[in-house]
Write the structure tokens for this entry.
Amino acid sequence: MIYRATLLLAGGFALFALLVGLLFGAAWGWCALAVAYGAIVVWHTRHLARLQRWLADPVPGAVPEGEGIWDEVLAALHRLERGMSKRERGLADALVRMRRAAQALPDGVVILDGANRIEWCNRTAEAQLQLDGRADLGQNIANLVREPQFVEHLGAGGGSPARINRGHGTVLSLQLIPFGQAQKLLLVRDVTQAERVDAMRRDFVANVSHELRTPLTVLVGFLETLRNLKLDPQRQHDYLGMMQEQAARMHRIIEDLLTLSALDSAPPATAEARIAVRPLIERLGADAEALSAGKHRIGISLESERDVLGIEAELASAFGNLVSNAIRYTPAGGAVTLSWREAPDGARFTVEDTGIGIEPEHLPRLTERFYRVDRSRSRETGGTGLGLAIAKRALARHDATLEIESQPGKGSRFSARFPARRLAPREPVT
Ligand SMILES: Nc1ncnc2c1ncn2[C@@H]1O[C@H](COP(=O)(O)OP(=O)(O)OP(=O)(O)O)[C@@H](O)[C@H]1O
Ligand SMILES: [Mg+2]
């Protein structure tokens, strides 16, 4: 194409020069040929210079224009350049999208090069490892995260994740994943919560075993005595009574554990059924009288007629535990008061006693499973230490919170606060 055009042009000029030579003599003919070919060289040189200028600084979309054969060549270059800019924009967009996705990950991500230098990290990783996404680029990560477990993991180039402690009880799990040629992806996961749950489960199993072992040891001891010694019928009867007591205690613990597990796995308490609070509290008052056997003054103060929405059996068990605690931890002659009253943001059921009270350091742990202030005393009164855990769970299922105030030696006040949305609409006045 270019050859043909060039040949045509050169041939045309040669013909023209020949014509000039025939008309005006050979000298003029040569002259004309030289001028014409000179013009071709100048024209090409100008286009070449323009092209070179653009190549030195290839501004996108500003490929120079040309005439004749140069027009076609430069137009092809223009098309090429446009295609490339488009691809480049597409790649840049894809990169931005990938980075956004990596930023949005709930886990920390750090990209390391072959020499463990930071190439990029997301904001989660910055916060978890106290990195600076700009200033620390190019730094060796081993200089910034110096925990020995991690350095070892880094040295091994992967394997099982490294667990490191990073201030305020935070536990991080770091895992190196090689990719590409020599690059590595470092995934950082906050496992604080998971570790806590794990520890809780271990504690729980240990506690349950311990709580069951005590009565079981007593039971086995009595059984051995009964088998090996010849006892008079009265003694035998006494021993059997004590064995029954221990068996009953084990039974209570298991019942309470099953209640707790049922509360934990049940779907949230629906707000469909209406629980009549007045008769519930009156029943609890009667139970308290029975439990106290006349040793306490028991008062009931019903200041509201509002009902609660939820599951009656759960609230009866939660309230019942607060009442039985008040009786059991209040010496004879004390007073226990049950009250139900409305507050600006809902309503509260309160059990107040004038009993032994609780030292402040025990208050935050009171609702933990098996937690008892005075183990021997609670055991004496038949407590399993699960009552408040059950009450708290049952209340939480009703969006209610348990508040505990207490003064050692003076008495305690346990309140279940229900939010307004858990109260049944007022009965229309008739
Ligand atoms: N009204 C109260 N006054 C003083 N101490 C209390 C009172 N209520 C609870 N406590 C303390 O809190 C601990 C935990 O109570 P919780 O009801 O969970 O267990 P419990 O009463 O020992 O056993 P359970 O209720 O399972 O039979 C009790 O052991 C007791 O030390
Ligand atoms: Mg109790």
In short: The longest strand covers residues 171-179.
